[in-house]
């Protein structure tokens, strides 16, 4: 399509105001939680009070007879199982409960208080069973199985090894690791790391309004993945997917929380049962209890390096707590190879990543997912290696970061020299580091530079562009605006640049699975890449049609026409021309309205055969790199860490809307600061999450933060349209790592766990806390694997 | 029991229990959904409305206590279709992301700038202690507020 290749990418670059800001600033935006309809019923969900138990009795008859109650649904109404990789997850607990907060029944009633009364009137009897709360419990000899029937589940994606409480295991093995460790010149460095869960604390809780009309479900929901909701809802309800329509109002924060089906099927079932519109909105307590958190994890990593700084070999075991059901963690086992196995050139490596079932709330996806803690572990480990061989940590990184042609852990060959020039860019941004260790006020000063590897989650997207006779265009996709501005700003920029019109003349259709084709969803930095590529292709088709009609009208060769600023003209000064509206309306009369469609999917970048097993993605289509630098001050008496300065060099391919990217970086870094310093989810011995709201789960406030200094690194190779890469997900990737390395440097002691709350840092300084002991990770790497049958 | 409330300058009747949180009356009874009940604990500030000109947490205010007072929500803060200087600056600085915290942010900043025409960045930072934002990382909100300083004198909206 020559029309596309002639699009000038720089025409798409601009700092554009967001079209949704005004309504958001005046309170007029209607998020899903704000929607109400005439005759609407209020729903509520009964949840398990126990982490593990057998359901002896569940009687809804008294509740159903209460005034105002219209419908009650239970496991009998939702026969299907869903999951990622493995179909292990029912909508309602059936026979057994597996975590505190697991749904048992749902009701719809006239008023919220009627629904609450009905929940209280449901009679339940659950016989407690022994629970495995920690991954150590789950992996102990003879441990209670969370899913005794694990072998009977339908496998949706082949290749992962499984056994008992090991929900999924992915390995990446390249080269002869034993030989590397056996070399006489090898210095061996080994570390263990542990991190807790992180709650997204999206301001809009998960919320849904469901209708049942003409034999079909219509679900309005706060989600990042309308097509997943459509297909998974159909699967649990046991109805054809074509009977479910999903539309998405503006979403009040996602960060990955809304990257899976959530409470939609409850409302859908209740709408069908009652014949009324049903609204269900999670309370903050429910969000805290059942948030699909970034998972807690435990890591052992071991490397063989030479005194000159060459990394000969590396092995690691990563345990990821998936909670009671596999969910996103099954997929995310893949990302260990590309994150913990990223950043550096390594001679030989073997990595295993295991998703472990426990009797706790399921975890999920959260901005850069396990990349955040794998990067923390790898970068802290790297600093310990540098120390062990007496090399400057920055010099070690310059020597070893991935460069053009280097191999990743799955044997993928990286293209282009990116990280090294980014380190140089950081040197310029930062200047010569100060050597200070103690500040004038007596606090301890620390600084660190870290590197990171992440990716753009590609996958299928579809777009349609309708050219209107008035010169405007309508973009129809299943993309959702979750707050990043990609849908409201990025995509219209791409379409407008292709069609030579103003971005404000591109109407963006709200996501609707009845109107637009399949899409993987908004997340993983994929919006401007995958949806952008589909939109570019769709707009390119429209452009071609417009040019052909204009060529006829102007009696010129289409190749000699320019299309910009709302006009199509014969190239050259004072060439004759027409407005795009004139051409579009002529085309409409002559040929019918002009439209274009576009699709995009993953390219399937090759890995080395035989390296990766159980991986959903063997190689990264679009790697994204980051270099972060952080300065902190630590109070030697209290252990309080203050952020003094933070700098980011981010690989963005091409910055379409630099101002929007800078906003994403500031926000992402601050979320990472919360993870590094204060956000803590703790799980009690009964399996209960102890933080119930904003008072106990503390996120960064305005007085805690600093303005992030940013340099956008452009020009690295990218398969993305116009050379772009996703920019919204990666800013959080290195923050835990950078803060931990800086704090370790400040206090002169290693850091192996996050978050670095004041008591934690104080204990480190007093020598009262050492690296986590992880006896459930075997010393010999191969002993950690599921034995092949 | 009928509550008599003055919301955005208009007298309104609500046949509700006086203990109903104001935020629920505004949202469910009057369809003014700008104020958001995000935490219901007084920590996030997304539910702030002006009561007699003071930013007030509507999640912790029983409707009965708001009777006879001037309640102003984000929808009625500035005349229809217009933005006040704080809102204007937030739009111009591209500060908004998901937007959920902004109804409350606008209340706090409007009030802070009415009180002090030339606040320092640090003073504004501390003024925002009761307004959590999960998306933006705050700095751009501060940039915007500083640029609007001085524009809110004379009790104008
Ligand atoms: S909802 Fe009122 S302060 Fe959070
Ligand atoms: S913009 Fe999302 S919470 Fe502030």
TrEMBL record, chain A:
InterPro entries: Ald_Oxase/Xan_DH_a/b (IPR000674), Ald_Oxase/Xan_DH_a/b_sf (IPR036856), Ald_Oxase/xanthine_DH-like (IPR016208), AldOxase/xan_DH_MoCoBD1 (IPR008274), AldOxase/xan_DH_MoCoBD2 (IPR046867), AldOxase/xan_DH_Mopterin-bd_sf (IPR037165)
Organism in which the protein naturally occurs: Ancylobacter crimeensis
Keyword annotations: Molybdenum, Oxidoreductase
The protein's name: Xanthine dehydrogenase family protein molybdopterin-binding subunit
UniProt xrefs under SMART domains: Ald_Xan_dh_C
Pfam families reported in the protein's UniProt record: Ald_Xan_dh_C, MoCoBD_1, MoCoBD_2
Domain Aldehyde oxidase/xanthine dehydrogenase a/b hammerhead: 26-130
Automatic annotation (TrEMBL), chain B:
Entry-linked InterPro entries: 2Fe-2S-bd, 2Fe-2S-bd_dom_sf, 2Fe-2S_ferredoxin-like_sf, 2Fe-2S_ferredoxin-type, 2Fe2S_fd_BS, Beta-grasp_dom_sf, Diverse_Oxidoreductases
Native source organism of the sequence: Ancylobacter crimeensis
Domain 2Fe-2S ferredoxin-type: 1-77
PANTHER family named among the record's database cross-references: OXIDOREDUCTASE WITH IRON-SULFUR SUBUNIT
Taxonomic placement: Bacteria, Pseudomonadati, Pseudomonadota, Alphaproteobacteria, Hyphomicrobiales
UniProtKB keywords: 2Fe-2S, Iron, Iron-sulfur, Metal-binding, Oxidoreductase
A Pfam family annotated for this UniProt entry: Fer2_2
Transmembrane segments: none
Protein name: (2Fe-2S)-binding protein
Residues forming coiled coils: none
